[in-house]
Amino acid sequence: DMVIGDFGGAEGLHVDGEQMRQIYGLTLQKMILEMFRKHNRRTYGLVRASLAGASPLPFALYSDLYDHRQFVRALCNSGFSGLLWSPEIRSARNSEEWVRRLQVVCLSPLAMLNAWADGTKPWSFPDVEHIVQKYINLRMRLMPYFYSAFARYHFDGTPPFRGMAMEIQDTDDLSFASMEKDDQYMVGDSMLVAPLFMGQTSREVFLPKGNWYDFETGECFDGGQVINISAGLDKLPIFVREGGIIPMMPVLQYAPKAGDSVPLEILHFGSKSGTFKLYDDDGETFNYEKGEYRWRTIEVEVFEDGNRRGAISKVDDGWVSSYGDVEWKFI
Prior knowledge:
Elements: E1 2-4, E2 13-15, H1 17-37, E3 45-47, E4 59-61, H2 68-81, E5 84-85, H3 95-105, H4 129-141, H5 143-156, E6 161-163, H6 174-177, E7 185-187, E8 191-193, E9 202-207, E10 211-214, E11 220-222, E12 225-230, E13 238-241, E14 245-248, E15 262-268, E16 274-280, E17 294-302, E18 308-312, E19 323-330
Parallel strand pairs: 3-4, 4-5, 15-19
Antiparallel strand pairs: 1-2, 6-7, 7-8, 8-13, 9-12, 10-11, 10-13, 14-15, 16-17, 17-18
C-alpha cells in the first residue's frame, strides 16, 4: 500500500497499487503545479498518464500512438473529457509523411517534435524544410488566437481543440448528426482544420451551416454540406467561418515576456459582422486569479455597401497590455 498526503506528514490517503495506477498521473501534476505556485510562476508540462480530473491543470497528455489517423481521432476525442492531448511527431518514413504529421501537430495543444528516439529534426528532409518552417511560423503567428481560446477553456470550460460533434450539438441537420467525423476538428470558435494523410491529394470535408472561407486564399464555400477539396503538400486545409476574426502576431524567435508589447494583425473573413474576445494578461504569473487580466473586445462592422470597419477596445489607465499597434486585414 501507499500513502498520499502532505509532504512530510504522517497522515494521508491509503491506496493500493491498482488505485495508485489510476491517480498517480494526477497527483504528480498537482505536485508540480503547487511547486510553481509557490514562486508565482506558471508552467506547463507533458505527461504520459492522466485522467479527466486533470483537465484544469496545465499539462498535455501524449502516448505512443503513432498512426496518423489515430492521433487525429484522439485529438478530436480528447475534447470530450477536457484533457489536452498532443499528437507528438516522431518517426516519418519520408518527407510527405513528415509534413502531413507536422501540420497537425502545429494545430494541436502542444507542438512537439520529439527527436530523442530517431533524431528527426525540422530540417531532416531538406526538400520540405520550407513547408515545415511555414507551419511552425503559422503556429507562432496564431498565438493570440490560441491564447484566447485557452483562456476561454480555463474560464468557461470550452475546449480549445474539439471534435465536430461539439460544434453541431444543437443542429437539426440529421444528415450531419448521423456522420462520424473523426478526421477534422475545430480550433477555437472560428477555425476548422481538415488534415490530409500520406498519399492523399484530396479529401471530403463537412462544413457546418453558413459560409466558410479558405484561410489562405479567401475562397468562399457554402456550408451545410460535404465538399471535396484538393491540396498540395504545402497546404493544410483550414477554413474560417463567416464573420470569424483571427488575431495574429509577428513571427518571433522567442516568446514575449511580461511587459513586452507585440503588434497585432487582425483578420476578418466574409461579409458578416463579427466579434472576438482577446485575452490579455502578463503571461507569466498567477495574478490573473486575482483579477489581473483583461478581455478586450475586437469588433468588425460590415456596412450595407460592403465596407468594413474594425475596432478594438482600449485598456484602462495603468494596464500594461501585451498588444500594441493593430493592422486590419479584411478577407
